[in-house]
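Dear colleague,

Thank you for sharing your sequence with our group. We've completed the structure prediction you requested, and as agreed, I am returning the results in plain text so they can be pasted directly into your records. Please verify that the sequence below matches your submission; if there's any discrepancy, let me know and we will rerun it promptly.
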Amino acid sequence: MADAALYQRAEIARWEHAQARASAERAGTELAEAIPQLARDEVPRARGAIDAHRRRLAGLHDEELRCRTLLERASGDGRFEALRDAEDEQRDAAQEVARITREANAARLLRTVVEDAYKESQRIFLAPVVQEAKPYLDRLRPGTDIEMTGDLKLGKVKRRGEAEEFDELSGGTREQLSVIVRLSLARVMAKDQRSLPLILDDTMGWTDDARFLSMVQILRDAASELQIILLTCHGSRFDRFQASYAVDLDQLREARQPAAEAPAVRRAP
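Please find the predicted structure tokens below.
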């Protein structure tokens, strides 16, 4: 920056030098063309002006020499190269700022898209699931409401106006609410013509008998509209569900064994 200022001052000095020389020449010409009387009267003033211009010219010449000397010294010290390097770094920094700005704008756009998608998922799934779960909750635990997270998990449970974290509930309560949420989600998807089987694996092991019977009744009613597959090691406990549709996997596996694995039968001699 200092080198550029010196270069500018040298250019200004050169220009003022030329202007002073031209002014002196014009003054001499005007003096020669003036009437003799006027020339005699103006000679002292003109000479004084010329002398002043000459002194100014000499000063400007000295300033030009000084600026040139400083520029040559700066060039020898590598300051021009440093200036070019600094300009290159500034250009690179500007490009980096532009790149980061583009990334920031993209991140803001992504955040907006994700937020919109989250709101849309709430509209499509969360609110309908909570709505479908309400009748089941009223049958099982009157006065209970649920709140769900964006990834379709139970967040908080409100019972008679008091909110509790889902993880803080008893094992049996968590089992029952989880089944109700899965059942409600299956009903929502079935309404959107995307019906899928609801598979429950050895569920409600911590549920007390009274609420277990209520849950079996809920599942039995839902089975009229949904395909519910219940896997359990305690088949007798779920006899009230739909015993006529029960399948013993051990017996089924034995029945499908190859004949070579069956015990040999002796014939009478």
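Summary note from our side: The first strand starts at residue 144 and ends at 148.

Kind regards,
the structure core
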